Each structure stands twice: as C-alpha cells, then as structure tokens.
Amino acid sequence: MGMFASAILAAAIGGPVAKPAPIGFLPAAVYKRSCASCHGDSAKMIADGRLKMRPRRDLNDKVKEMGAIIQPPLKPDQSLVMTDLLLSWESGRPFLAIVRQEGAKLRFEATPGTTVQAAAKGSSLSSGKDSKGDYVSLPAGAGISDVRFTLRRGKTTVTLDGSRAAWTRY
Question: What confidence tens digit (pLDDT) does each residue in 37-48 have?
Fold first, then answer.
C-alpha cells in the first residue's frame, strides 16, 4: 500500500480525524466470508434487532474480539470499519470504505443501494466497476484528500470530504 496505512470513509456526521488512506480490505466481503455463517446476513441481523441494543463502543469491542479469531485476523482500525459497516446496515445510512489506490483508480466499497458520486479538483470523476470492484478515476496529480464523495441511500445524502478519514458517529 506504499505510503498508505489504513482509514475509512464511513458516512455519518462528525467523528475522529486522521490522515486519509485506503483500508486495504473489503469489509462486506470479509463479513460474508468470516462472519455471516454464524451471525447471518445484514438483513437477518437487522430483523433480529441484534445491533439496536449495542452502543457503538460495545459493538466495536465485540467486533475486535471476534475479529481476532478470523483468518487473517482484523487489525484494530479494521474492526472500526466493520463496526461502522454493521451500524450502516442497521441505520440505513450510506457507508463508503476506500479500499486502495491503484494508479489512477481509487477503489471503494459502498453499502448496497448507495449511489456514489465523486469529484476532485473541480471536476466530476468517472466511476466504474470491473472484476476487482467499484472505483473512481482520479485526474492527474489528485489524491485521496482531493476527492469529495456524495453518497445517497434512501432519503439520506451525505457529502464526504476526503481530507477527513472517518465519519463514524451514529
């Protein structure tokens, strides 16, 4: 990942600030591969009300505990991403995780049903999907901190400024 460590863009209001950087994994794919067989898919968790009774901190503690036993184990910042993914399923808010940058392609994962638009340096960015997933094409000289994402899911619209790495307050 070069100069990038790890971080997230999860749509919500407020939250901690860190250097923006790709997280290096697909959170929903990890959930499906390592968690869904015991905990069910996102729709089942919400219908069962499993998330509603948990404050974010408690849910993150449980995700850290479970994340330590999957292979490969989740790092602490990856546990935060997984927590925010679960909370986005429950709340219906948009969620976006920047996965990695591959040259001019900035790869991301968004919750199903989220419409994603991106702009950088005053221009709309083209987006696409290929065998590796969703991406936006960055203009020459643009980086993550130059990107502004607009996410729409249901009645919720959130604009994320790429200079902030996390929007995590639910």
Answer: 888 877 566 666
106: its two tokens: 């900035």
In the DSSP assignment, the letter for residue 72 is: S
Domain locations in the chain?
A: 27-161
> At CB < 8 A and 24+ separation, what contacts does 48-56 make?
51/86, 51/87, 51/89, 51/90, 52/90, 56/83, 56/87, 56/168, 56/169, 56/170
Q: How many CB atoms lie within 10 A of CB 70?
A: 13
User: Under DSSP, is residue 83 helix (H, G, I), strand (E, B) or coil?
Assistant: helix
Q: Which of 101, 145, 98, 97 is nearest to 121 (CA)?
A: 145
What pTM was estimated for this model as a whole? 0.74
Q: How many CB atoms lie within 10 A of CB 130?
A: 9
